[in-house]
Amino acid sequence: MRIVVTGGAGFIGSALVRHLLTQSDHEVHVLDKLTYASTLTSLEGVSGNPRYGFTQADICDAAAVRGVFERVDPDVVVHLAAESHVDRSIDGPGAFIETNIVGTYTLLQASRAHWMNLPEPRKSVFRFHHVSTDEVFGALGDEGLFTEETPYDPRSPYSASKASSDHLVRAWWHTYGLPITVTNCSNNYGPYHFPEKLIPLMIVKALAGEPLPVYGRGENVRDWLYVEDHARAIRAVFEKAAPGSTYNVGGRAERKNIDVVKGVCEALDHLRPRSDGKPYAEQISYVTDRPGHDFRYAIDCSRLEADLGWSQTETFESGLRKTVAWFLENEGWWRPLLARSYGGERLGLKSS
To answer: Catalytic residue at 158?
Structure first.
């Protein structure tokens, strides 16, 4: 099939593109604006593949999106392009409304126009696959799991914008019949992760000898999903799932934030010990909590496992060790990103 991947130069998007080009015969065309968190260096290993194509464009640009559809003639659209960092959404929510809501609408309209003109059987097998987050469900207490039936209760500008995009996608299915699928995933981690998110940020700050800032007391809980396992789940859904389906994708790896940071420190202690012989955990510091910080997320992914036969290949411990090792071996990938667009400063302090 011919697949358009929006946001394909980002973290999850590039993992999916690398997977599709090395583990399938699909043709893949990346549509990416190349914002601060996207880089074509994440695709250097596959960019020479004859089944790969790239267009730099904003998903809010209807003419540019329409042009990509006319050139590529896709069978599948996988929509990953999004502003995704909660702290940045606190500082500047406007970009999240524009990209995550207006951009999704623009893409849905282009997809619908394209789909309506497809001949059978291509029209029946076309899919618009929307990748979303567990943050749309709000917060959990000490017990329970998010399921596909959990009511939406977003708490941040980021999660509210993603919830809005989820609703738009399902509306285009119910109203217009556009064949859609949706996945809501837990926190991803792994190689090529932009170093503003928790795990890569802790790695680069630890190596720089800087304090490792943990919000509050580090008691907030997240479920962690290795990004390559997520890529396999996305592919399984758009290849196999019935139109209108929703699946949660999780790692069955709930961890307190403080335990994640300590895990990074322990991996670094083993793989690249400090020159003074002291543990990296000495660099942990506690900072004022994020405004509106959800306490706990946890995903029930049993429907995906039962319906489509997907399962994780990495435990959190094995995935974290692979991630730390990758960042140690690929400083040439992340150091230019820090120099170009992000210096590791605290974000998300603008609560008013």
So the answer is: yes
Torsional class of 168: left (φ above 0), alpha (ψ -120 to 50), beta (otherwise): alpha
Taking the C-alpha atoms of residue 72 and residue 68, their distance in angstroms, rounded to an integer, is: 6
The rounded distance, in Å, linking the Cα atoms of 291 and 293 is 6
Tens digit of each residue's pLDDT, the chain (352 residues): 999 999 999 999 999 999 999 999 999 999 999 998 899 999 999 999 999 999 999 999 999 999 999 999 999 999 999 998 788 888 899 999 999 999 999 999 999 999 999 999 999 999 999 999 999 999 998 999 999 999 999 999 999 999 999 999 999 999 999 999 999 999 999 999 999 889 999 999 999 999 999 999 999 999 999 999 999 999 999 999 999 999 999 999 999 999 999 999 999 999 999 999 999 999 999 998 878 788 999 999 999 999 999 999 999 999 999 999 999 999 999 999 888 865 555 455 554 4
- Would you call 134 a catalytic residue per the annotation? yes
**Domains delineated in the chain:** 2-190+224-255+292-316 (3.40.50.720)
Question: How far apart are the C-alpha atoms of 192 and 98, rounded to whole Å?
Answer: 25
| Nearest alpha carbon to residue 231 among 29, 10, 48 | 10
Catalytic residue among 134, 228, 254, 300: 134
Does residue 342 have an active-site annotation? no
Cβ pair 162, 132 in contact under 8 A: yes
**Residue among 52, 105, 158, 189 flagged as catalytic:** 158
- The answer to whether 153 touches 204, Cβ cutoff 8 Å, is no
Q: Which of 32, 58, 83, 135 is catalytic?
A: 135
> Omega into 121 within 30° of 0, i.e. cis?
yes
Closest by Cα among 244, 119, 74, 100 to 172: 244
Question: Tokens in use for 178?
Answer: 């556009």
- Peptide bond before residue 336 is cis, with ω within 30 degrees of 0: no
